[in-house]
Design a protein that fits this description.
- This protein has a single domain (5-232), classed as NAD(P)-binding Rossmann-like Domain (Rossmann fold, 3-Layer(aba) Sandwich), CATH 3.40.50.
- It is built from ten helices and nine strands.
- It has helices spanning 13-24, 36-43, 60-64, 81-84, 86-95, 115-124, 147-153, 170-182, 201-212, 223-232, and strands spanning 5-8, 29-33, 48-51, 69-72, 99-105, 129-135, 155-157, 189-193, 217-219.
- It has a seven-stranded parallel beta sheet with strand order 3-2-1-4-5-6-8, with helices on both faces.
- Strand 1 (5-8), helix 1 and strand 2 form a beta-alpha-beta unit.
- The chain is globular, with a radius of gyration of 19 Å.
- The protein starts with a strand and ends in a 9-residue tail after the last helix.
- The relative contact order is 0.14.
- The model has no long low-confidence stretch (mean pLDDT 92).
């Protein structure tokens, strides 16, 4: 029987790696994201490409039919998950989805105000099998969110001071997510997923200096200055997503 793994957000940093890891396992994948054409361009005929949007309930049935396992992530623009995402989760349960791997945040136990916490709570009470993948800051944000500052200004500009982060590679997140969907032993478990070493941004700047062959400087701005410059530049504020 055809039992595709539904990957929600298949074009995202992590979602794309989940798709790749599932395909490497030989799993059938239904890749869902805003643009069906972009999915086909990215993955060709290796996946079943499905247009999807949490705000469009008419797109739920084609995404969910026959799917028993699902990778779920929260799009960063969605803050009201109760209104926008809970209806999809209800539909997924009704359609027969049994297992969910959810991309969450590390340290969420101490940060109950973030949308991920509400999603974890819904899944805990849903009767579904779930695995929470609580990720630390993505390494790829250095080449994404911070790319322009590093390239154009030779600096890292983020207000975290001496705070340390164990940067995690999204390729590793994709591999872990695929594994949790393939093996039953990960059900009802939460995993903190980090990189091998905790680094502050001064250390990151030194590493980038050595790799790029030019001086990269870490700037520790005040939060208002950081937000103003980021918004004026048209760059989304840093997020694990």
């Amino acid at each position: 029987m055809f039992d595709p793994v539904l990957v929600v957000g298949a074009l995202g940093n992590v979602g794309a790696e989940v798709v790749k890891s599932l395909l490497d396992q030989g799993q059938p994948v239904r890749a869902a994201d805003l643009s069906e054409a972009a999915i086909r361009e990215r993955f060709g005929g290796a996946v079943e490409a499905i247009p999807f949007d949490f705000t469009r309930p008419e797109l739920y049935p084609p995404a969910l039919v026959g799917a028993r396992r699902m990778f779920l992530m929260r799009p960063p623009q969605i803050s009201d998950v109760k209104r926008v995402m809970f209806p999809f989760l209800e539909a997924a349960r009704a359609a027969g989805v049994e297992r969910v791997a959810f991309l969450s945040l590390i340290g969420i136990e101490q940060n109950r105000r973030v949308p991920h916490y509400a999603l974890e709570e819904w899944l805990r009470g849903s009767g579904l099998s779930w695995t929470f993948l609580r990720a630390s800051f993505f390494m790829q944000n250095l080449s994404g969110t911070h790319r322009a500052d590093i390239r154009d200004r030779s600096e890292l500009y983020v207000p975290v001071g001496r705070g340390k982060t164990s940067f995690v590679d999204v390729r590793d997140l994709g591999a872990v997510a695929a594994l949790t969907l393939a093996e039953a032993r990960h059900e009802q478990k939460a995993y903190d997923l980090t990189g091998p070493e905790a680094l502050d941004y001064y250390q990151v700047a030194e590493i980038l200096t050595g790799v790029l062959g030019r001086r990269i400087t870490y700037r520790d701005p005040l939060l208002p200055a950081f937000v103003l410059r980021t918004v004026r530049g048209g760059t989304p504020l840093p997020s694990p997503w």
